[in-house]
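NAD(P)(+)--arginine ADP-ribosyltransferase
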Amino acid sequence: MGCGPSETVAATHPTVSPPIINGQSKQASDESLKNDLNQRRTSTTSHTSKKIRINSAASIHSTTKRVTSASSKTTTTDLKSSTVGKKSRTPSLALYDDANYDLVIIWVDPHIIDSEKTYVNSLTKFRRITDAVFTFNEFDQCIHFLDHIYEKTAFLIVSDSIVEQFLPLVIGKPHLDFIYILNQTKRKIELVNAWKKKVKGLFDDIEEIFKAITADSNHIDSWIPMSILPKNDIKKNENEANELNSSFMYMCLLTEILLKMQYDYKARNTLSEFCRGRYLDNEEELNLINEFEQNHKSQSAVYWYTRDCFLYKTMNFALRTQDMEIIMKMGFFIRDLHEQLATMYKNQVDQQKVLVFRGQGILLNEFDKIRKNIGGLMSFNVFLSTSTDIEISLNFAKGAENDPKLVPVLFRMHIDPTKSSVPFADVTKWSSFSYEKETLFSMHTIFRIMDVRRNEGQYWNIILSLTSDTDPELMKLTDHLRQEIGGGSHLQQLGNLMLKMGKFDRAKDMFSTERNITNEGTWFEQIRFNHQLGYIFRENGEFVKALSYYEKALDIQKANLPKNHPSLAPIYNNIASVCYSIGDFSRALSFYKTALDIELKSLPSDHRNLSNTYNNLGSVHCSIGDYSIALQFFTKTLGIRQKTLPDNHPDMASIYNNIGSVYNSLGEYTKALAHYQKAIDIQEKTLLSTHIDLSTSYSNIGITYNAMGDHEKALESHKKALEIRTKSLLSHHPDIALSYNNIGSVEIDMGHYTTALWYLEKALEVRDNCDAGYHVGFANVYDNIGRVYQSMDDKLKAQSNFQTALEIRKHSLDENHPDIANSYNNLGAIYNLMEEKQKAIEYCEKALVIQKQSLSENHPSLANTYNNIGSTYSLMENCAQAISFFERALTIQQKASEPNQKDLVNTYNIIGRMYNEMNDYEKAISFYERSITICEDHFANDEQLLATTYHN
């Protein structure tokens, strides 16, 4: 029967204590641990030809999150050839994915010459529109790039010499809406009908294209971020409005901090210098920047914001893309503008109810959400410009009529000044465009959606009413997160908020800035700073650096606090999390127990820190196969969090994920999925769409679906996880390898062996460059590579990889861990194929002994082992003995809450074959018929499986 997928249970991860709240940090260990970590890293490079799956690193913030996934599938094979062996003049995808640009300009021309003055000047001009400008001279590079830009709008320039060959390859790309043909030869080009919606014209020179892109990109610049807060009684589709809710919450918290901060003239200089870098060759804007730097006063904020210049464009871009670097640079101006509006609002409070308008194009998906949420709440997460003149607003709406991505709308906003908690004012007297009769609202003004109606023309009316209402559930979570962000300086608060949002680089910037201001500070401040950086480096997968900073924090605490002071527990917890992340479970367990001993003596039984330590202990026990103990710890964690946290707090999602991982390990897939779904439901409402914890949930769900035989759903989930991880993590982070392995595993199950091997090799490349290279999770990669070679009938390579997986597991796991049994089972299967029957039975029986001790009697892994032993006896022509093992496997498969139908087909078929060889044709036909029934019900399109079954 062969060996099954190398699936390790969805991994639970320790929760790392937040770095600065309540002065608590996490743990650091002794020098031997750092040496051991470095040795582990270097030892991994000796296994460059093999692959492993990893337990992803422990998550921060008191929840265990990630999963060590076992198998995954991917179907995309074209990625492999796109850039191999080629040099691109463009920045790498990784560099681009780190940039918060929502539009990208792509220029494809096989005859581009980098040194040409015209070419250089053209790129400089295009960078006035966006810094994301890329050039390609080969088709496959460009196609690969287009396949890997997410949530962007692409503007494509194509040379006339390649139009007919190239456009058919890319015209259907979803993010490609604007195509410009550079026709310098002025030859006649026939446009296919399918191209006409996207091709904006034929242009004789690049200057004309620059003007066209500038005009078309203005529609994107006018997009503004909105949040939809649905009514509780409106049934939402999956993912609908959830990201908007979390964006609203985090941006409100960010704005609160920025408005409280104190700024000096240096802030204005810093912003001005930054903007000069964005408008290097634009003399008009550079002059305005100089004017702003020299003359801006807080009382002139409205005037500057309403000018059509760099300031308005830069702020809206930053808020639209949530570019934290720019938002923070503009913090002083956001404060000035808000305070000037607040002053005007106080002076205009006696005004009457008024009707204002705003015309614009909005994205199709946003428009659809608004239509489905009549009665719900809506917030604009920018300073909102409106007009009392409907004709002016209509002109803006009609400007979007020809853009296929946008729906032209006219917002009709009924304003009752008594119902707003956000300042707004008629700024006509202060505006640089007084004829627009502008009313300007500060950020996060909330409206109720009253109606959506189609106008007789080409636009839609959206009727809104100003309100002070909020979403109670969302506000409760916001209040809780506000407390978790804590007191301290405003820079500390900003850093903590960035950690909550998963923006680790920005958090590091905030903490480092504060460090520079305070210099060394007190010993407590030194602890906090080292703890903060340890936390950030750990999340980035840089475990050696994380350990170094945690140790510094621990040394300072030991020098200033008693041995068992409560503040030491978080440090020990965090050191343990590093041990866990590199697969040193025994040391992790030791440090977690030290932390628990301190907390039990000093904290109340329902303290949140205790819940974190229980959670972390559960993660270790789950990883070493002690599932019942793990579940006990997770249950304690859940009980405390249910008492102390809002139901929709992200840490609730983490514990649901971890409980799901235990059930997945126990083969109870329905229970596992139910818990994972609880986690996803919370995370999609409360986390940004690129937050790494979401990738953990998607990965776990993918593992479970794959174990249940639903490879398509597994592949979909694993692709979501990989997309988030490639956006949010460093390229050598272990979780990237985890996703590659999972996809490779699913590809194996789908029979796509070449594709699987490519993904598994990618996992090993990550392993060779990360700090957790000898983590036991990488054994899964080697197992999966062994499965590929086994399927390709290269038995020696398969045996070698299975043996490497066993050695890695023996290095980190107890000899009775279920994963050790998996390795024995895989080796037994390959020895069976190599016709070394005695070795095959010996290894499978070793697996069986461990599994009977550590797993439930109906665990799916036992069925795999029974099948492998039965296969060996079949080769030995001992059909009766073979049948006894196959029937034990069948009994387990039939008892599964969600039976894997393909496994049942295979087992029925092989038992039928055994009875056929024993000349018991009646029983043989009985089993074959059961196999045929399942095939016809579940695999009607699988011609090979049907043919095999009918042949039997």
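thats it. Residues 1-14, 18-100, 233-244 have pLDDT under 50 and may be disordered. The CA atoms of residues 557 and 568 lie 7 Å apart. bye
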